[in-house]
Amino acid sequence: MARRPLPRILSSGSAQIARSREIARTAADSATDVLHPLITISRGLRKLAATARAKWAATPKERRGPTLFLVAACVLVVAFMPYGPLFALVGVMGAAAWQGRERPVVKTGPDDAEVARLKGLYEALVPYLSLPDDPEPLFAHGGDWSGAFSDYAFDEDGRPTRLRIAYPPYFTDGEPAARARIEQLLHAKSGRGREYLFDWDEEGNRLTMHVLDALPTTIAAQHFVTVPGETVLGFTDADAVQRTVPVRAADGTEDAPAVVWRTGPRSTEPHLLAVGQPGSGTTSLLRSIALQALPHGDVLIVEGGGTGEFACLVGRAGVLAVECGLSGALASLEWAAHETERRLIAANRARQAGHPAPEDTRRPLWILLDRPSVLGHLAAADGRPDPQDLLQVPLRHGRAAQVTVVVAEQFDSLDVLGETVRGHTRARVVLGPASPEQIASVLGGPPHTTPVPDVPPGRGYARLGTAPVLRLQVPATPDPFDDATSEAHRQAVLELLPERQTATMATIAPAPGSAPDPDVDADTAPTLRKEPGTAALSAPVPAEG
């Protein structure tokens, strides 16, 4: 049986109804826009009338007569004044418009989603913060979370950014393991991928959780306002340190809280150890330290990776050598050990004679080693001494001789470092993604925040001796010869480089009797000479150009 088509009025009725609804909605919106002032004044008049009615009801009966007489007198005065009724009408309309304006809704408490998240946190903490014998437990399944949680705040995604937790006095908040369980639970339930700060108040039995903002990465290498003997390792939170330095950032000049490392004879942490994953920024940290040390001292660089990360410093004034091969590294470190002994002897003789220390013993000498474990493997395969063995004298006596040692190594080769390096590098830096256990093994204490898995280069933690663990962001100091370096960062590093030496270039050759370095061409290698009364070895090189 064939279908019969619907009548035209039925088939087109739904479209006409939808079109009519759209026209009515548009007309209503237009009327609302036109009549908005009238609606606002009407709403305000209702509020004023309700306020007057409430005040009249609250007025005692014995005062209503005088009050009514006073109002009537005011009305008469206004009525007989020139333009009085007009001014009164304008005033009433203005007050009504002010009272009837649309005010933003003030949030006075958490919404349903936030309440559900707080209840989830409360239930998750019950097994850790309650005991079966507690007659009035603060944490109990199905209990009231408002008695334990306060001072809470949420982000736009509904995740808590601040929370204050009251816990029972019998909780073992003095045990690191118990604290770590609570912090790990709150970190997992509040949202991963963010860095949390946990502040334990043991006296008041309170735990405050904060979500920390990421440290800025817009500060590049530059001249920092410091005195000789101070090195800016990076920047941290504003409330973590008491000192700020003016810096140039991407958005202008500002005062940034800096982590300042002090070296010299009065330093309690004269040497530094930086550990990180590949690409975490330890080499950039060494470049930043070298650029800050060159205006006031001499720098000796030993690069175990052999990637040419310090090629921009070759031949610069104040750079004694940049060694990548095993023979050059051994010769350089052997000279550094002898130089440390020479400085100690010269300073001791001057003190015995009642004279100040010689000038060449007061100029700081910096020894920067990047990945010494690679050179150690090469030395073991070649039957030669480990370069770390030559660091014993500079590490043990470097503070008195104005010699500072900075070692950078990766986590996978951390066990290769000797006890001398570990024992005398009291200033520690950990960069890149790392677990709390790895950070604690290097810094000697756990971080005060929860590390995140994805961090930019140069982000990590620092600890100077027994001081608290600080978050750290190293100033961007990339290799200016790298094609991936931005033009702004390249120019920032090039501006800090000293002038190249044209007459002589500081370098160090292999020690007598040692095997030649296969990476050095014998025809072009410079011949060294030790000038009497000088602390460095020099060799003539042709002028640039």
From TrEMBL:
Region (Disordered): 506-545
Domain of life: Bacteria
Xref: InterPro entries: P-loop_NTPase
Keyword terms: Membrane, Transmembrane, Transmembrane helix
Residue ranges crossing the lipid bilayer per the database entry: 68-98
Protein name, as recorded: Membrane protein
